[in-house]
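User: I'm putting together a teaching handout on how multi-component assemblies are represented. Below are the sequence lines for each component of a complex, exactly as they appear in our records. Could you produce the 3D structure of the whole assembly as structure tokens, so the students can see both representations side by side? Please keep the chain order the same as the input.
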Amino acid sequence: MLTLFHHPMIAGCRFIRLILGEYGEEVSLIEERPWQRRKEFLQLNPAGALPVLLADGDVPVPGTNVIAEYLDETRGVLRRDKRLFADDPFERVEIRRLVDWYLVKFDSEVTRHMVRERIFKPIMPTAAGGGSPDAGALRAARGNIRGHMKYTNFLTGTRNWLAGPRLTYADLAAGAAISILDYLGEIDWQASPAAREWYARLKSRPSFRPLLAERVTGLPPASHYADPDF
Amino acid sequence: MLTLFHHPMIAGCRFIRLILGEYGEEVSLIEERPWQRRKEFLQLNPAGALPVLLADGDVPVPGTNVIAEYLDETRGVLRRDKRLFADDPFERVEIRRLVDWYLVKFDSEVTRHMVRERIFKPIMPTAAGGGSPDAGALRAARGNIRGHMKYTNFLTGTRNWLAGPRLTYADLAAGAAISILDYLGEIDWQASPAAREWYARLKSRPSFRPLLAERVTGLPPASHYADPDF
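Assistant: Of course. Below is the structure of the complete assembly, with chains in the same order as your input.
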């Protein structure tokens, strides 16, 4: 069985769990706090970052993008019309572009800051950077959400799924990031009706269930978080 | 013919040019200053980031990683033993891990800060963030170089090329980042003899020549920069 070192509030980790869920792969989850820099964990991934998959034969596969490509090459290609990727090189370009958009750009402008300030800093020791949330960082991240949701609303208003007619990695990457912000009550769904309809379809999928059931200690989710008819 | 929107001092852009050079692909280069946010450029890549490749049929392929995968799928697979990637999924994991290391981790801890402070800020308008270099940012980036060069020295001391016996994307990604820092005279080669021998082999390749010939206006390179026997 596969093993995934992850944290429930890191978008890349959610993305990989959604892929595994869609492909029906059983996975053993190990929650890791990357700021602790555990020696055994650093041996698996010298970069010290999550997620890390222990693949077939317990070979470590480190990093969101590296894991996603590995799973496509060893699982996705066998799924025919259930594959979460595409055969055509230009469709692959569009899927990878959007995965990067939500897990690199959106992450560096919004998600990672929101999670660090609101979830990680309260539980991190001061020496590792813990403490009170930085109001300036929160304000900047909140200011950036609107543009990204506008873009998501545009894409979902013109396509059935984010990268085209079929569900792909792009939807799972966007859903991974947006679900974390939705937990934190940071998404204004009134302003994004097409994105809301798309996200309702996405979060109704069985692959989303385990994510929607998780709770951060001391920080309950927005009331509509786990409700597919929000 | 392919067209690449690039900047000579962004590591991801150098990486793509090295791939194209190794594959003998002719490319028309257009230098772009991403902080200008040109309207025509944003239409090609709404993310506003470099590099962007105009591929066959002038379809835009945006982002380092997306372009590298596209070039492997449309060029690399046809090259047999000259392919800069691998067939085996776990060899692919190691190559992608190292590309991420040098173009994401090393970039966010060293390269991007060094380039912003020493190259971009002096030519950027104040409104776009231009001005004098931030001594604290430079000090932090310099402090991070040593660990990365130690790791590079370790890898190159135990393997013929960075990811194993053959030249791959991993070498071109690392060479792209390190060559920018070497231009700026920021690499202490005395401390990294194995990395130095590897880099001398790499920069002797014809694909490196156009990069070594370029100059930043008003900022000459370190004296050994273009010398293969440095």
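A couple of points students might notice: The helical segments of chain A are 11-22, 39-44, 64-74, 89-120, 135-158, 169-183, 193-203, 209-213. Chain A touches chain B at residues 46-47, 49, 55, 59, 61-63, 65-66, 69-70, 73-74, 89-90, 92-93, 96-97, 100-101, 105, 151 (CB under 8 Å).
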